[in-house]
Amino acid sequence: MTIYREVNEMSRCGGCGKLLTVGGLEVERLGHTLVFCSPRCIEVFDTYKEPKYGAEAVWPESIVK
Ligand SMILES: [Zn+2]
Fold first, then answer.
1. 3-state SS, one letter per residue, for the chain
2. How far is the CA of 36 from the centre of ligand 1 (A)?
3. Is the model's pTM score more than 0.85?
4. What is the mean pLDDT of residues 5-19?
5. What is the mean pLDDT of the chain?
């Protein structure tokens, strides 16, 4: 089954900001469910973005509602 969504409803990877169509990897971080395009981007978030920016590392576009 293919799910089509409007661009403004699509999520962005929490690591690199790439627009995600379907799928993506969902992980719990900082009390939110965030979506990432690859394990590498989760690693970037955990080792770089979160230590550096804390809660501000979480982009609203990456939170799974
Ligand atoms: Zn990514």
1. CCCCCCHHHCEECCCCCCEECCCCEEEEECCEEEEECCHHHHHHHHHHHHHHHHHHHCCHHHECC
2. 5
3. no
4. 82
5. 89
Question: DSSP string covering 23-35, please?
Answer: --EEEEETTEEEE
Residue 54 token pair = 């804390």
Chain centre to alpha carbon of residue 9: 13
- Ligand 1 centre distance from Cα of residue 42 (Å): 8
Backbone angles phi, psi at 19, to 5 degrees: -70, 130
Ligand 1 center–CA 21 separation, angstroms: 12
